[in-house]
From TrEMBL:
One of its GO terms (molecular function) is RNA binding. Keywords: RNA-binding. It comes from Coniochaeta pulveracea. Residues 1-10, 26-43, 346-368 have a biased composition (Basic and acidic residues). Residues 1-43, 327-368 are annotated as: Disordered. Residues 333-344 have a biased composition (Polar residues). This is THUMP domain-containing protein. Residues 189-305 form the THUMP domain. It holds the Pfam family THUMP. GO terms for biological process: tRNA modification. PROSITE patterns: THUMP (PS51165).
Length: 368
């Protein structure tokens, strides 16, 4: 007697076709799809944020990453045209006499959204959404001429205006001027590149870590040369470049999915680069805020104006939209109160004008 195990036959009375169609109700026509494939279908690139990139971190409502990506890309495209006069490929206005094939247009847009990183780069896309392996977060890669800090600032300034709400699922926008590796050497590299544009840096802290990257060492040598040139110019009585203004500053680090860098290490390393004889820490009302975002193996830094950072709710669109709605409601209530007051005054004036002739008649009758 054979001991081999046989596969069970299909249940009698049912056809293979029926079972196949039943399976298709689940699992995308019976085909298993990877997370990468699903992300691509939603218009995402799935991957990591790499050193050398620039862009904008976007936080959003839970489980709404795909909708948030569509919203934010549409908004970014609008502002890219407004601020820089550029359009994404395929956004040119069609001829009025040309009848547009709606189905073809939709397929073209989906193909653009699903383009791989290489295809997106070759196609000249200014904004590329990247899916992160964490909830409520995505990254949007940007390309010149978009400058993330000023770009995000303008969007948030407009978000305070009543009636300017463009997004429903997007929360915060966090611009990144430069991105490096999430190591002490990578942090040094990015900090030298970004902070030197705003702050005077310490000469004693210019030497990079031993394990530093070639880029960090090059940045270090450049700063050393700049310091030496300035000293030589002073000794020779030559005019020198004005030093950076004595800004106060605060450091705001955020760490996700990374165990290499800690909050204390980040603050100590970054603050240690800034010349404390010219710049002092002010946690309440800083002139400049240093934003540091660490995610997995990437570390990004940007410097934003402290006044706008506070005024614009830390670049939180949800709060700004709420503020705009509240402001609009207050204006509406004030308008209604003014109209009611005006109506009461008009009614009283009309009554007075109506009663006055009757009083005059009574006085005439009494006199007669």
């Amino acid at each position: 007697m054979s001991t081999s195990v046989k596969r069970k036959d299909a249940p009698t009375g049912g056809s293979t076709k029926a079972q196949s169609s039943k399976k298709k109700k689940f699992g995308n026509d019976g085909k298993w799809k990877t997370t990468h494939q699903k992300s691509k279908e939603q218009g995402f690139l799935e991957g990591v944020v790499s050193p050398g990139e620039i862009g904008i971190w976007v936080t959003c409502a839970r489980t709404q990453e795909a909708k948030a990506a569509r919203e934010v890309i549409a908004m970014f495209d609008e502002y890219a045209e407004l601020l820089y006069g550029i359009k994404e490929p395929g956004q040119e206005e069609p001829d009025e006499d040309e009848e547009e094939d709606i189905e073809a247009a939709v397929q073209k847009e989906l193909a653009a959204m699903k383009a791989t990183g290489k295809e997106a780069k070759e196609g000249g896309r200014i904004f590329t959404p990247v899916k992160m392996n964490v909830a409520c977060l995505l990254f949007v890669r940007t390309r010149p001429p978009v400058e993330p800090v000023s770009f995000v600032k303008r969007i948030c300034q407009d978000a305070k205006i009543p009636g300017k709400q463009r997004c429903r699922y997007v929360n915060r926008l966090i611009p990144m001027t430069a991105i490096g590796k999430a190591t002490e050497a990578g942090l040094f590299d990015v900090a030298c590149k970004v902070l030197g544009e705003t702050f005077a840096l310490k000469r004693a802290e210019v030497d990079p870590p031993v394990e530093s990257t070639p880029e960090a060492k090059a940045a270090s040598e450049e700063m050393v040369q700049k310091v030496n040139d300035t000293l030589d110019a002073i000794r020779s009585g030559l005019p020198v470049e004005a030093p950076p203004a004595a800004y106060t500053f605060a450091i705001r680090p955020s760490i996700r999915n990374n165990n290499t860098l800690t909050r204390d290490v980040i603050i100590k390393k970054v603050a240690g680069l800034i010349d404390s004889t010219r710049h002092v820490v002010n946690l309440e009302k800083p002139d400049k805020v240093v934003l540091i975002e660490v995610y997995q193996n990437s570390c990004g830094i940007s410097v934003v104006d402290g006044e706008y950072w506070d005024e614009l709710k830390k670049y939180n669109l949800t709060e700004l939209y709420g503020f705009a709605h509240k402001q609009r409601d207050e204006q509406k209530n004030q308008t209604q109160e003014v109209e009611q007051t005006q109506s009461l005054e008009d009614g009283a004036r009309s009554k007075q004008e109506t009663d006055q002739p009757a009083e005059e008649k009574n006085l005439e009758a009494q006199a007669a």
